[in-house]
């Protein structure tokens, strides 16, 4: 795993007393679990924009596609001030080497989805995006984002954290070792992530493979941009049980000369049981990882599919 993985986070989720009432929204999963693996870069748009603590509560109003940020009691319009800050802060964060961002859910500044936007009659529609979150995603569209509420969903959490670790490995690959050329590094990265990419989209995985094969014909900057865009687009697609099962059966093929008939039957049954949703993904993956070590299959030992993130996070333990 990369030595340091930097992730942006809404400061209130770390327990910092920056909310409008002087409180916080400390999230223990963020600090106590993810904090073991990530270096957090905290951001509180309201405080950093100079609104102070405590401050008047605010909300989004008007057009959900271009809402205004207005205080509740006095009706003060803070839109231009927040947008100017958000643009500057997003530009600064572009230099922080962030591999992800965890936003505060439903915040008029930091919520990245389903934020309430009120019409002129005071009725809300959950169709908005916080002004800072919008600026961040516009400036850094390939950086994975989530909010602490959606991290309670097993599959959303796994996908988000998998994307963070993969992006961190990609950044590490780009940094290089001073001896291996870009084309060779890119081909190596593609090879070691092949099965992981297949679990998200066989079609896009093949496109990435073709891009890697033609890497020497591309200018470096264009190659990196195109590859990273395709990589993150692929990983954003859900890795379904059916796609996982196909990858697991593909891995099983590497042991066709090593396993006994009973072992093959057992492994096939475990994969089918997973496909039906009766056991979590960690069950067939653990068995295949065992055979990989036992029979020392070099290709599989180099595949990040078997360990895309730390096992201690238990991201593949849900059925």
Please, how many helices?
13
Largest sheet: 4 strands, parallel
Count the beta strands: 8
Mean pLDDT: 97
User: What is the domain total for the residues?
Assistant: 3
Ranges where pLDDT stays below 50 over 5 or more residues in a row are none
Approximately how much beta-strand content do the residues carry?
5-15%
Within the largest sheet, what's the order of strands?
Answer: 2-1-5-8
C-alpha termini separation: 26 Å
In terms of quaternary structure, the protein is single chain
Order of helices and strands: EHEHEEHEEEHEHHHHHHHHH
Q: Measured on Cα atoms, how large is the radius of gyration?
A: 22 Å
How does the overall form come out from the CA principal axes?
elongated
The computed structural class is alpha/beta
DSSP helix fraction: 40-55%
Please write out the topology.
Layout: E1 6-10, H1 28-33, E2 39-43, H2 45-48, E3 58-61, E4 68-71, H3 79-93, E5 98-103, E6 115-118, E7 124-128, H4 131-139, E8 145-147, H5 154-175, H6 182-192, H7 194-198, H8 202-213, H9 220-236, H10 241-252, H11 261-275, H12 282-294, H13 298-301
Parallel strand pairs: 1-2, 1-5, 3-6, 5-8
Antiparallel strand pairs: 3-4, 6-7
Helix pairs in contact: 3-4, 5-6, 5-9, 6-8, 8-9, 10-11, 11-12
Structure in words:
This protein has three domains: 6-152, no CATH class; 155-236, no CATH class; 249-313, no CATH class. The protein has 13 helices and eight strands. The longest helix has 22 residues, at 154-175. The chain is an alpha/beta fold and 319 residues long. Helix 8 (202-213) packs antiparallel against helix 9 (220-236). The chain is elongated, with a radius of gyration of 22 Å. A hairpin with a 5-residue loop joins strand 6 (115-118) and strand 7 (124-128). It has a four-stranded parallel β-sheet with strand order 2-1-5-8, covered by helices on one side. A four-stranded mixed β-sheet has the order 4-3-6-7, with no helix packed on it. It has helices at 28-33, 45-48, 79-93, 131-139, 154-175, 182-192, 194-198, 202-213, 220-236, 241-252, 261-275, 282-294, 298-301, and strands at residues 6-10, 39-43, 58-61, 68-71, 98-103, 115-118, 124-128, 145-147. Residues 194-310 form the DUF1722 domain. Pfam families: 2-thiour_desulf, DUF1722. This is DUF1722 domain-containing protein.
């Amino acid at each position: 795993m990369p030595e340091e993985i930097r992730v942006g986070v809404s400061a209130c989720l770390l327990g910092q007393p920056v909310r409008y009432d002087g409180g916080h929204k400390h999230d223990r999963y963020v600090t106590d679990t993810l904090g073991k693996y990530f270096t957090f870069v905290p951001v509180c748009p309201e405080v950093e924009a100079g609104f102070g603590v405590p401050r008047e509560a605010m909300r989004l109003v008007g057009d959900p596609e271009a809402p205004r940020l207005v205080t509740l009691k006095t009706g003060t319009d803070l839109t231009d001030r927040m947008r100017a800050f958000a643009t500057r802060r997003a530009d600064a964060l572009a230099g922080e080497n962030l591999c992800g961002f965890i936003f505060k859910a439903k915040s008029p500044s930091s919520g990245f989805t389903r934020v309430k936007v009120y019409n002129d009659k005071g009725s809300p529609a959950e169709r908005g995006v916080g002004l800072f979150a919008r600026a961040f995603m516009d400036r850094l569209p390939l950086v994975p984002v989530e909010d602490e509420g959606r991290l309670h969903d097993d599959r959303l959490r796994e996908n988000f954290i998998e994307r963070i670790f993969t992006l961190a490995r990609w950044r590490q690959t780009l940094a290089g070792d001073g001896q291996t050329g870009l084309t060779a590094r890119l081909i190596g990265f593609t090879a070691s992530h092949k099965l992981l990419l297949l679990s998200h989209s066989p079609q896009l995985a093949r496109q990435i493979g073709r891009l890697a094969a033609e890497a020497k014909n591309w200018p470096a900057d264009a190659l990196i941009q195109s590859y990273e865009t395709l990589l993150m687009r692929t990983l954003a697609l859900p890795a379904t049980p059916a796609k996982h099962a196909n990858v697991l059966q593909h891995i099983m093929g590497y042991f066709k000369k090593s396993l006994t008939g009973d072992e093959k039957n057992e492994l096939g049954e475990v994969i089918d049981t997973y496909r039906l949703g009766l056991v979590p993904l960690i069950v067939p993956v653990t068995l295949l990882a065992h055979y990989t070590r036992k029979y020392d299959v070099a290709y599989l030992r180099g595949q990040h599919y078997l360990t895309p993130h730390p096992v201690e996070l238990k991201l593949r333990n849900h059925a």
